[in-house]
Amino acid sequence: MVDEYTLKIMENSKRQYIGAHTSSTFEKDPKHLAFTLSRYKFVAKMFEGKDSVLEVGCGDGFGTTIVAQSVKSLVGIDSQDYSIENCAENKWLQEQTDLVVHDILENPYPKKFDAIYSLDVIEHIEPKLENRFLENIIKSSKGNGSLIIGCPNKTAHAFASPGSQVGHINLHTHESLRNALSKFYENVFLFGMNDEVLHTGFSSMCHYIIALAVKPLEN
What we know:
This protein is an alpha/beta fold. It has nine helices and eight strands. An eight-stranded mixed sheet has the order 3-2-1-4-5-8-6-7. The termini are far apart.
């Protein structure tokens, strides 16, 4: 027997499509969604209230929803047509967000933003293209803009799944990610994550690393 309050909630709600990639993760390894969403929550807190935000590598936009709740406008770009065409669907994406097919390695996005973030992307970028990746991000950023980059820690690579080990061709440590971003930003702050927990503990034992970079050196 469903009580009246629960029945009313069910009647006023509709099933949401969570996106093609997220559906696959939910089927194969649902706990991984908790890890992923915690990274997006960190971005949402750091960029809360920003007028304009760009996500580089938004995938199907499922995690994007969390950031969209906290900022005034958000553009999510991804180089894969399939991801955008089979994106998640909810009111935050419909009202707050534009999801666009765009390859940041080809060109900067034709608009400048207050803040930019990119989670689980840089490790898939060929090392020789990393500077172009960051340069085009800079060109999409306002002069006082901020950037958040998140990726698996190179020191945890031995414990990654076989699929991840093949696809992760440009992993970083805390030190190497700081060095990479310091060529483009005046200040870089590093954090670690293990599962859903954000911390500033011993860097080599972090499964995931997040860098917050502020004040581009040139734009």
